[in-house]
Amino acid sequence: MSLWLQIVDTAGAALLFIGAAICLLGVIGMIRLPDVLSRSHAATKPQTLGMILVLAGVALRLRSGMDLATLGLIAFFQMLTGPVASHLVARSAYRTGQIDHGDLLFDELDEQLTEGK
Amino acid sequence: MKRILRLSFRNADLPPLSAEFGTRRRRVLDLPLIAWLTLIWVLLWSTLTWANVITGLVVSVAVCLAFPLPRVDLGLRLHPWGILRLVSYLLHDMYTSGVKVTRQIFFGLPHRAAVIGVPLRCRSDLMLAATAVAVSNVPGGSIIEVRRATATVFLHVLDADRPEELEAARRQVWRIEELTVRAFGTPDEIARVAEPPPPPQLAAGRPAP
Amino acid sequence: MIAPEQVDRVLLTAAVVLILLAGALLLARIWRGPSMLDRAISLDVCAALIIAGLAAKSAFARDPFYFPIMLVLAFLGFTGSVGIARFIAVRDRPRPPHPDDTQEGPR
Lengths: 117, 209, 107
What we know:
The complex is a heterotrimer of chains A (117), B (209) and C (107). Chain A is mainly alpha-helical. Chain A has helices at 3-32, 36-62, 65-95, 108-116, and one strand at 104-107. The termini of chain A are far apart. With 209 residues, chain B is α+β, with helices and mostly antiparallel strands. A three-stranded antiparallel sheet of chain B has the order 1-2-3. Chain B has a three-stranded antiparallel sheet with strand order 4-6-5, with helices on one face. In chain B, helix 1 packs across helix 2, helix 3 (80-106) runs antiparallel to helix 5 (163-184) and helix 4 packs across helix 5 (163-184). The model of chain C is unreliable at 96-107 (pLDDT under 50). Chain C is elongated and about 60 Å long. The interface between A and C is large, with 59 and 58 residues. Strand 1 of chain A pairs parallel with strand 4 (113-119) of chain B.
């Protein structure tokens, strides 16, 4: 095994480690933040940045064309489906009144909703 | 004698890049959709062989015939340079906003959040949805509601006490919108996005009631 | 002189440990999570963590065997939380939805 391949291997492992650390940071954020909408901010991090770094690490270690394409497809669908879920959760949290409107500094959506009714 | 298969550059009333076949019942196939489904099929099998490509083509044609989609022109155009710029901006933004959210998690706990509305410039549904997806993929922007009639997205921002943070969030959404439309949009949408962003209709940073 | 393979091994093992720790913390959030919507978000993150764990496994073994599972999780991992957000959270209302009395409240 040549030196360059070894360097790429170690870089892949390091990327995977960084991605796992970002996942952990996001989950710590989910523990610490106070309400649903703030938690969804923290939840985006393991889903996007951590996932991309982890998949890039795997790609650097596997290095064959078809596997790279599959990993790209995994990242693409993760990016595509994550917002659907987070938007629906945020929307139903807002609509069913599970967030504390007194905690918000101001709320431009609330005015429009009450205007619309 | 009717032809069995017609391609769209021979027949002007078909949507672009599609084929029509059949003699009695006309069926219209969307060729990029079939190519995309075949690609996913091959990637699911994770080996590129002729057998996989052919079975993938057969399966995707069968799926498109069994579940036909309505014929709409989505207005999706692919601009490779724009996609590259969008992806690199999103990666950079994921990094910077990730750092910001991490700082808020560990050091800025007594913050006040707010919900702001950002009026967008693009009007087509696809561009609106693409912008919303791109914005919510960045940590620090979580979209609560998208109003189609006025093309306004409402997002929840942490750290709303500081007016410069609010301004930064708005500018970030507009930047992502511009890059998204430049990556996927039709020419008139791109022209619309090239204008400066609309002034905020609602006063930002009102005190809490 | 440490062998480079050992460095890789240590890094990957540490990554797996971090992912497991994140999963344990996430279970705590699912347990405590005051509303169903917290659990829905946790479910999404849980799918992401499973994908990350499978990725670490396939990076260890240099084996694309688990890639279809990761792909299917990326496809369908969001359906559970969408179901919760659409159907359960509406019934699981912690208090009557009057806009006036949202000033205080336990959650």
